[in-house]
Design a protein that fits this description.
The chain has about 425 residues and is mainly alpha-helical. It has one domain: Growth Hormone, Chain: A. It is built from 14 helices and two strands, in the order H-H-H-H-H-H-H-E-H-H-H-H-H-H-E-H. The chain has a two-stranded antiparallel ribbon. Helix 4 runs antiparallel to helix 5. The protein is globular, with a radius of gyration of 22 Å.
């Protein structure tokens, strides 16, 4: 092999290797962050332990969602303050501190401060950093990048819902929360080490220049925001109340754990699938189909109330919530570009925050007032149907042209490369790009 091509191959292999380290960091951190979605497992034991109504406990999850939103919103402004591994370690450390405080649980206020505020803030902050990193290492597969990062987050509920269900029964809710706090200490070390090995830098995102990025006005963003709000409302209602919904419709506790797990499976699989579909189909079709299926599933539960229908409906709602959660963020990459992803995602996540603030609390309040979830299911069905109508206003396929990255290569961004250019590729690479031997 000519010397120039040997050097080029080495340069490309190093880039691929560094990309794998960054993706491995996401695989370590994001599922742990996604344990937030398994909150419903804790509701009944905490209700008995603290002697508070379900609506108040649902408020803790709402606080966590709001703080998650704030963490994601403020994270892009903090990208330049610390190296990327330090950002992730700080986020995971805050999560561990919050869960440790929640394990103490002498009352609702401390639970809200630990699980709601600290765990929520650290969760959103770490999630933002990892999503930006994954988008940088997969710039030409924007849908897949978002599906991967977001799907791993949702996979946390798949993994931790049955573990939490077993651990709460075997050791109690306090010991389970304390165990999660210890896990986050280990996750902080592992994810930071992997990111250090990858040398990826979210600070260098500003150095990317994209050719052919479309100019998109605020009207399109508001369509995305409202559609995401309505889709997230139904999904968060199902996630936060999954176990309670199955029990309320006559299911035993074991089936409630199954229902919670299936919501997580649908959510995680839907996020990865939704991102992948956006690389191959118009985003408009993906989200329209997701809204429509969610509305049909919730309508079936409202018309044929039973534990079995509840489990199937919750699984479908989880799947559709995953599709929506993968597709709408992917739309930001397609319509606004990788350069602006972190900033635009910080704005879009406010829709998720509003939905998380209102829907879990509203579903819990309806249960306290009526002793069931029938009205909550009907309202969620109406929201999903309205989301379908809103999503019709998204651009059609011809308007969804992904931009082309020209300089520098996102997968090569490192902590030491914070200027607008990377070291030039070897001479053999430059010659190959010019079409010369």
């Amino acid at each position: 092999m000519p010397p120039g091509l040997q050097t080029t191959a080495k340069w490309d292999c190093e880039s691929v290797s560094r990309r794998h380290f960054a993706l491995a960091a996401a695989a370590v951190l994001n599922p742990a962050l996604g344990s937030l979605y398994a909150w419903s497992i804790f509701v009944s034991p905490l209700e008995q332990r603290l002697g508070v109504p379900r609506s108040d406990l649902s408020g803790v999850f709402s606080i966590a969602v709001v703080c998650f939103t704030l963490g994601m919103g403020f994270a892009p402004a903090a990208y330049r303050l610390m190296a990327t591994p330090a950002l992730v370690a700080a986020a995971a450390g805050m999560c561990g501190l919050g869960l440790g405080l929640a394990a103490w649980t002498p009352g609702l206020v401390v639970l809200g401060l630990g699980y709601g505020v600290l765990f929520g803030l650290g969760n959103g902050f770490g999630y933002s950093v990892m999503l930006q990193a994954v988008n940088l290492v997969l710039p030409h597969r924007r849908g897949l990048a978002n599906g991967f990062g977001i799907g791993l987050f949702a996979a946390g509920s798949i993994l931790f819902a049955p573990v939490f269900g077993w651990a709460v029964g075997a050791f109690g809710v306090r010991a389970t929360l304390a165990g999660m706090a210890a896990l986050f200490a280990a996750v902080a070390v592992a994810a930071a080490a992997l990111l250090a090995a990858s040398r990826i830098s979210v600070q260098a995102a500003a150095s990317l220049r994209m050719e052919g990025e479309p100019e998109r006005g605020p009207a399109l963003f508001w369509v995305i925001w409202i559609g995401f709000l309505l889709g997230a409302g139904a999904g968060l209602m199902a996630i936060s109340q999954a176990a309670g919904i199955v029990v309320a419709y006559g299911g035993p506790p074991g089936l409630a754990v199954v229902g919670t797990t299936l919501v997580g499976v649908g959510n995680g699989g839907g996020r990865l699938l939704g991102g992948w579909l956006c690389d191959h189909l118009p985003i408009r079709r993906v989200v329209m189909g997701a809204h429509l299926i969610a509305a049909a599933a919730l309508a079936a539960l409202a018309l044929f109330p039973s534990a079995a229908v509840a489990v199937v409906a919750l699984a479908l709602v989880g799947l559709c919530y995953g599709l929506i959660s993968g597709a709408y963020p992917s739309a930001l990459g397609f319509y606004y570009g990788v350069v602006n992803y972190g900033r635009m995602m910080g704005r879009l996540i406010t829709a998720w925050g509003v939905a998380g603030l209102l829907t879990p609390w509203l579903a819990g309040a309806i249960f306290d007032a009526t002793g069931g979830y029938g009205l909550a299911v009907s309202l969620a069905c109406s929201g999903a149907a309205l989301g379908f109508l809103v999503s019709i206003a998204l651009p059609r396929a011809a308007e969804q042209a992904p931009s082309r990255q020209v300089a520098p290569t996102a997968a090569s961004l490192s902590e030491g490369e914070r200027t607008s250019h990377l070291p030039s590729p070897p001479s053999g690479e430059r010659a190959r790009k010019r079409g010369r031997p």
